[in-house]
Amino acid sequence: MKEDLFNQFCSVLGSDNAEKNEPMSKHTTFRVGGPADYYLSPHSTEELKKICRICEENELPYFVIGNGSNLLVSDEGYRGAVIQIYRNMSEIEVEDNTKIRAKAGALLAFVAKTALNHRLTGMEFASGIPGTIGGAVVMNAGAYGGEMKDILEEVTVLTGAGEVKVLPASELELGYRTSIVKKEGYLVLEAVLSLEEGEPAQIQKRMNELKEQRVSKQPLEFPSAGSTFKRPEGYFAGKLIMDAGLAGYQIGGAQVSAKHCGFLINAGNATARDVYRLIRFVQKTVWDKFQVELETEVKMLGRFEDED
């Protein structure tokens, strides 16, 4: 069964773009996670549709990732197919002077650099976010006062029924870390961003300022998934965690960053279980002290210890 499925994937993607038992620690920014049964890298919408259909016909779970920047995969790995679009579906084009069309796998940093090179402003806030356009659309990613909803014009998605739809920004229901794409389980194929003409020197200056803020305030020298928790209404997650006395608290190789308590980091040889236990400990401690519920921004894939 497994070999037959793998051969089907290879017939669509070629043997160079299909792997069996691939360690997810190689593909997540936390640098933890066990093997996925299949790890697949399509080049096009048609290939993506075909491998999704193979998964559905064989009742095989599948999960689409970008560069694994907001993901915690269990140590047991994933009993299904991980479909990675970052490697082969990342083209970026400039249209009509002020619009950028980017495939879902394009890194935000590369899109922001393209905008700079074409004298376009509006993308600076995303220049340091370690994710892809697809993930940024799903979560309405934002930083330093900017959000994807400020620049999105339209998004092309693949529905669960295999239909390709173009959704204008007005229909995306973009909110804090949410969208209709997330609610409906659509797969992002590409997005069109509407930017404005700007002065390259000013754009670069703003990017440099944001980079300096990140370097000075965030633990970029350690593997992490960025901000681990969503911002609770009326609070800041990092401050709640710091005020709970958890700065530097460690379970195994996972640690609450003392530099920025909103970041849980792999301080050295952490396992996914270490990270998961630390997440739950932080949530419980903050709830016990402040009666504030911290919801994870990080997605979890696979089986973790308190699940049936």
Describe the model:
- The chain is of the alpha+beta class.
- It is 30% helix and 26% strand.
- It has 8 helices and 19 strands.
- The chain has helices at residues 2-13, 45-57, 108-117, 133-139, 180-184, 200-217, 237-243, 272-290; strands at 18-23, 35-40, 62-65, 71-73, 78-84, 92-95, 99-103, 120-121, 142-143, 146-147, 152-158, 164-168, 187-194, 196-197, 224-227, 250-251, 254-256, 263-266, 299-301.
- A 5-stranded antiparallel sheet has the order 6-7-13-11-12, covered by helices on one side. The chain has a 4-stranded mixed sheet with strand order 1-2-5-3. It has a 4-stranded antiparallel sheet with strand order 15-18-17-16, covered by helices on one side.
- Strand 6 and strand 7 form a beta hairpin.
- Helix 1 packs antiparallel against helix 2.
- The relative contact order is 0.13.
- The model has no long low-confidence stretch (mean pLDDT 95).
